Amino acid sequence: MANYALIAVNVLAFLYEISLGESLVPFLERNAVIPARLLGGPLSIRLALTPVTAMFLHAGWMHLLGNMLYLFIFGDNVEDTLGHGVYLLFYLLSGTASFAVQVLFQSASQVPNLGASGAIAGVLGAYFLLFPRARVVTLLPFFVVVEIPAVIFLGLWFLLQFLSGAASLGRAASEGGVAWWAHIGGFVAGVVLLKVLGGSVRRRQYSI
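^ that's the sequence the OP posted. Answer follows.
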């Protein structure tokens, strides 16, 4: 229930975004996480809430659809483990933590950070612990479809984020792109929050 509600809110928020026309850019700049702004001036309530508002905003259809696909595939099983209310709290905390890590590693950046991927990375971190032997249907090059254990699929995903994040450290803070450290921070936060919020690590077999 909570997972579907989160997907719906993300979709509705994006539909609102595309209805704004020329007002979209200032709207995103007000509600996204901008590391230099968050750290460099007086902290208002609106500014403090940007890690929450930013996790429900997206930069385009592909950004939205990619994130929602991951959330749809992995979120429901994590919600079943944690329960509806705890899962919602888990999601919001994972997203907030993901932006905090991104700000830590890109503190001088003026680039707006937005999207659900950090919160979803937290869901992936929890799934990594809960369902390591679940089978994830994966499309390989040349349109080869295979089933890969979740522990391998998500382990490789995290390794890619980490290597990409390390490579991004040498880039100028003004450059945009993927917020790799938000993904890394969200994943680690998901692992930690699963323990803190009381999710029991159950070994199950799922085909997804």
